Structures are given as C-alpha cells and as structure tokens.
C-alpha cells in the first residue's frame, strides 16, 4: 500500500557540518535549544523520522519538521535562534548608535555621568529602552573602578620575585606574608543593636563612641593558610621587631638535618626597614626578605585575611573597650586556624605586567 502524507525532506550533512555539530554538542555552555536542534540534525542525518526525533528530544513532531525545513534552506545558520514574531521595532539603529556614542563620548552638563533618565530625556527614549541598550553593549555609567600605578623603579623585578615565590616556592622553605592592620578602632554604638527579624535586617545607630585604637600584626603561612596575629598599642619598629620574635618562636626547631629557610613578603614601610630590624635579620641569614612594590599591597596575601577579619568580626560589631576588641580579634584568629585554607595564587608575573601595560597604554 502506497504511503500517504507530507513528503519529508532528507537531510545529509557534509563532513564540515558533522564536525561543527559534534564540537557544538561537546561544549558545556551551549544553550539547551541550540543543543536540541543540533541533536535533531544528527538524527535526521541518520535517517530518523520526525516522530522518533520528537520523542527522543521531548518536543512535538511539528517542531522537528520546522527545524528540518529551516536547515534545508539555511544549513548551519538555521541552528541559531531566529528572531521571533512580535511587534515591530520602535527604536532605530541610528537611535541606538546615538545612545552608545553619547554614553562613551559625552557627559551631561549637570553631572559627572549619565543616568538612564537623563539619557532618555536627551535622546527622546524611555529609560527602560536606554537601560536595555546599555545592557546589550555592556555599558554601566553608574559604576567606576579605581587604580593606582606603582612608582617603584624596581616594580617589574619585585613583581616577578613575589609571584615566583607564590607559584614556585623554594624547596624546604617557609613562606610568610607579613603586614599590619593599623589603627583598628574600638567603636561602640551609642544605642543597642537591634537584631534581624523576618522581613527586617539588623539595625544599628549611625553614631558611636570611640574607645581607642590598636594595631594588628599578622603573618600568613602561604602553604598552610594559618595566621599568627598579635595586637599592639603602638605601631613602631620595636613592636614590629617584637612580632618577628613571635614568628620565630612559632617556627619548628631548625637543625642541620632540617635546615629550612624563612621567606618574608612585606611592603616597604619604614618600620620594616629600621636599623634595629635590619640588625636582627642580619643575625639570621636563613631569613630572606621580599618587598612588594610601592602602592602594591595587593601582592601581599595577608591583606586578604585582613579583609576577611574586617568583614566577619570587626566592621559590624560593637566594642565597649580595647580589651573586648582585642579578645574578639584573638578569638577569630583561633577559630580561623582550626580549619585554615591557603589562598590559591594563580596570577603569574606576565599576566600582572600585561594588565599594567594595558592601563599605561590607555593613559598615553
């Protein structure tokens, strides 16, 4: 008996098309719709019917027929999502170009940057339309980032030295990142902190009493992630030297059997290079100092720890004395060291220097 029904277009893929679809399906971030259409084409090439493909992919046979006809006309271009039917565009390409050009090259007379409403008023569009255009082109006038180029004449050498120490430390060596968080304030809110409730965040008064400041010296073990921290009332070379002695006490006993080396990463602060500090280090030739470049404290991994303790323990708390602040800091460090996790440094010197070079080229 002769088969009746709509004639189905046969699909035969060439080698290039098969390779493209195979690589497309191996991607991890391919959209689901595009993946289904690619699988459907592979099954069409194998001679499967629309109904069988629809059952496998969880769509209706009519949809598979549309994909088959689209591919027969447009080949691989039919894989991508086509514009859907709907209301015609009300914004022309010239208007889109005007918004993008003005955003990049002009500023409003009464402000430092455009807002969606000021741009919409200037161009005769709705603020939602301006927002969509900015999003499509990756423009965010309300955001800004800061940068600071180092003026250190040995910037390149110091970057390579410190990053090389992180990525490929010497054998049988202990690497510590050392720095101090100075002027940590013991702030007490002048009203009790109101706890969080369902639908209501924690609340605190905007003003406070000051109960003095202290200085937190810290040494981060790059390999283990453990932190040694000590608080001092002042921030001088004598306090820094006392902290180095604390670091030395925490080290394992050094012998001829285990002649390990100690490497310290720290900045060029005058306290770190005082005569009494240099004299103490000179008596310990197995201690090696690696200075970060000027304005480059981000190269010191202990700065990341200072950010963590500030966010989790200091910023939102209320301290009625320096003693309570000191106890809170020591308690946090003790808990932190119960399950320390070393920071994973991934940026090599070439990557860092490449970014710096890019900023320098934009400043010319």
UniProtKB/TrEMBL annotation:
User: In the record, which residues are listed under signal peptide?
Assistant: none
**Matches recorded under NCBIfam families:** transpos_IS630 (NF033545)
One protein family per Pfam: DDE_3
Extract the SUPFAM superfamilies matched here: Homeodomain-like (SSF46689), Ribonuclease H-like (SSF53098)
The record's section on Gene3D superfamilies has: Ribonuclease H-like superfamily/Ribonuclease H
- Which part of the chain is the Tc1-like transposase DDE domain? 175-326
Its name, as the record gives it, is IS630 family transposase
InterPro entries, per the entry: Homeodomain-like_sf, MscS-like_channel, RNaseH-like_sf, RNaseH_sf, Tc1-like_DDE_dom, Transpos_IS630-like
Name its species. Answer: Thalassobacterium sedimentorum
């Amino acid at each position: 008996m002769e088969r009746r029904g709509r004639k189905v277009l046969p699909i035969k893929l060439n080698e290039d098309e098969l390779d493209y679809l195979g690589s497309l399906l191996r991607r991890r971030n391919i959209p689901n719709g595009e993946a289904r259409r690619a699988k459907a084409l592979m099954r069409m090439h194998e001679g499967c019917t629309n109904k069988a493909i629809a059952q496998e992919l969880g769509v209706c046979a009519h949809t598979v027929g549309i994909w088959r006809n689209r591919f027969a006309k447009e080949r691989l271009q039919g894989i991508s999502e086509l514009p859907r039917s709907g209301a015609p565009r009300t914004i022309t390409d010239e208007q889109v170009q005007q918004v993008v050009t003005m955003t990049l090259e002009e500023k409003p007379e009464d402000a430092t940057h455009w807002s969606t409403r000021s741009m919409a008023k200037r161009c005769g569009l709705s603020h939602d339309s301006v927002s969509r255009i900015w999003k499509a082109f990756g423009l965010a006038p309300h955001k800004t980032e800061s940068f600071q180029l180092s003026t250190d004449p040995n910037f390149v050498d110091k970057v390579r030295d410190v990053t090389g120490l992180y990525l490929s430390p010497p054998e049988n060596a202990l690497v510590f990142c050392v720095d101090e968080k100075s002027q940590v304030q013991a702030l007490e809110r002048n009203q009790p902190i109101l706890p969080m409730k369902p639908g209501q965040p924690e609340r605190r008064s905007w003003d406070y009493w000051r109960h003095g400041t202290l200085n937190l010296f810290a040494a981060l073990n790059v390999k283990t992630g453990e932190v040694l921290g000590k608080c001092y009332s002042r921030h001088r070379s004598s306090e820094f030297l006392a902290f180095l002695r604390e670091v030395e006490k925490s080290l394992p006993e050094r012998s001829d059997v285990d002649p390990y080396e100690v490497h310290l990463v720290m900045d060029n602060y005058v306290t770190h290079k005082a005569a009494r500090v240099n004299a103490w280090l000179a008596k310990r030739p197995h201690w090696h100092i690696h200075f970060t470049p000027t304005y480059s404290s981000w190269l010191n991994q202990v700065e990341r720890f200072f950010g963590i303790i500030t966010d989790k323990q200091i910023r939102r708390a209320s301290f009625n004395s320096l003693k309570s602040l000191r106890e809170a800091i020591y308690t946090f460090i003790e808990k932190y060291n119960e399950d320390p996790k070393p920071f994973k440094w991934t940026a090599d010197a070439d990557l860092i220097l490449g970014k710096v070079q890019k900023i320098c080229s934009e400043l010319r």
